[in-house]
Amino acid sequence: MAGSAGSTRHGHPGGSPGGHPGGMPVISSDLDRNPVVIFWEVTRACALKCEHCRAKAQPKRHPLELDTVDSLRVMDEFTEFDTPPIVVLSGGDPFMRRDIFEIAEYGIKKGLTVSLSPSATALVTRDRLAKLVDIGVRRVSFSLDGANAETHDRFRGFDGTFNRTLGAFEAANDVGLSFQVNTTITKSTKSALPEIAEVVKQSGAAIWDLFFLVPTGRGLDLELMTADEHDEVYSWIMSNQRNWDFRAKTTLGQPFRRAMTLKRLTAGGRELSSFSSDEIKAAWPAPATNDGRGIFFISHLGEIYPSGFIPLSAGNVRKDSVVEVYRNSEMFTKIRDREQLQGKCGICPFNVICGGSRSRAYAMTGDMTAADPTCRFQPPALVGKAV
Predict the structure, then answer these.
(1) Better-predicted residue by pLDDT, 222 or 106
(2) 4: buried, middle or exposed (CB in 10 Å: 19+, 13-18, 0-12)?
(3) Domains of the chain: total
(4) What is the CATH number of the domain that holds 181?
(5) Which residue range is the domain that position 244 belongs to?
(6) pTM
(7) Nearest 5°: CA angle at 209, between 285 and 4?
(8) How far apart are CA 47 and CA 49, in angstroms?
(9) Residue 158 class from Cβ within 10 Å (0-12 exposed, 13-18 middle, 19+ buried)?
(10) CA dihedral 228, 208, 241, 350 (to 10 degrees)
(11) Measured between alpha carbons, how far is 201 from 213 in angstroms, rounded to an integer?
(12) Residue 112 lies in a domain
């Protein structure tokens, strides 16, 4: 989608500690009971036609979208979790809803951390961003998929979006609104990452979110990186992030945790096989979130999915308890169970912190428990054997 990285830039935090669009909440250690982030597609309406859009966003709102009354009730349900989650209002473009400020403010007054992912259109004005600050929104996110107008505008489907995005950065800085920059990584955008990093540096962003493409929606027409190329990007992030004055995180790049943790653990010369699961978990101090585990997605029609990229509904907010679905539905409990993971993900020692991208596994194999096809790592038990 437009405002998000596919939408669902949404995505899912899968990288560096912290880095969620809403800031740092109190995080429950029990991700089976309590999500860290809820991504809520409040509309599919959007003025852009982004190449990677998961939802194939439309120019007009759907007549059966959750209305204001339903939306406020859903915010009430979010407060029933043991710890208040971050709620990311995305789309489409959340600014296409006239009631978006009312919905956001209601959630904030209920004690939730609320952030927005608007699209870079004429709706992103200094006044609207200032209003977000006034009602207590902690952070917004903007997408940047090229280092110049030619590449970014082509990706976004409209001329002028690059300059609008730079204008959004400036307006957010002016009103004191923290923001995150999201970049979709494909085979064609990979080489531009150093130049995009420079633009992010100049923008004043708090976070750079590197979103690893899931081939679904309009993204089916984009060329996915190979498993080796994914690891090349992980290595590039590890080599450069210490020089950035913003935080970096990955979305739908769960194997980045494996790459970074492996580097940390083996730096002293020990063999990977000598490390216990507890040592591996301790080496990655951030929550080990994944689709349906610490994260879930609500569609514009109220469907409850483990991810915006796994269109398998476990319920609908119009008739089901959000808390009950997250904690106890068969789909959510299955996707959280590492013993259900297939192939090399099932026997990988890093599945306690990684588990592979469940979204990419589903998109590429049709099975949300399959091994992540874009991870090149071979678990020690498979070395020398056919996978």
Answers:
(1) 106
(2) buried
(3) 1
(4) 3.20.20.70
(5) 37-253+287-337
(6) 0.89
(7) 130
(8) 7
(9) middle
(10) -50
(11) 23
(12) yes
- 146-175 tens-digit pLDDT: 999 999 988 877 889 999 999 999 999 999
- CA distances to 177, 230, 328, 332 from 325, rounded to whole Å, are 33, 33, 6, 7
Is 240 a domain residue?
yes
Tokens of 158: 């409209």
Both structure tokens of 301: 């029609």
Q: Which of 78, 68, 80, 20 has its CA nearest to residue 42?
A: 68
Residue 8 has pLDDT above 80, yes or no: no
Residues 9-63 pLDDT 10s? 443 333 333 333 444 455 667 999 999 999 999 999 987 755 545 445 566 778 8
Task: Report CA torsion sign: 50, 165, 226, 279.
Answer: negative
- Cβ contacts of 121-124, under 8 Å, gap ≥ 24: 121/2, 121/46, 121/47, 121/48, 121/93, 121/95, 121/161, 121/164, 122/47, 122/164, 123/47, 123/93, 123/95, 123/96, 124/95, 124/164, 124/167, 124/168, 124/171
In a domain, residue 261? The reply is no
Mean pLDDT across the chain, nearest whole number? Answer: 89
Residue with tokens 């995180």: 249
Query: What pLDDT score was predicted for residue 61?
Result: 77
What is the pLDDT at residue 52?
47
Kindly state whether residue 360 falls inside one of the protein's structural domains: no
pLDDT tens per residue, range 117-149: 999 899 999 999 999 999 999 899 999 999 999
Q: Nearest 5 degrees, angle CA 130-CA 48-CA 73?
A: 55
pLDDT at 23: 43
For residue 305, give the nearest of 287, 336, 332 by alpha carbon.
332
Amino acid at 205: A
pLDDT of amino acid 24: 45
Quote the tokens at residue 108. Answer: 């904030």
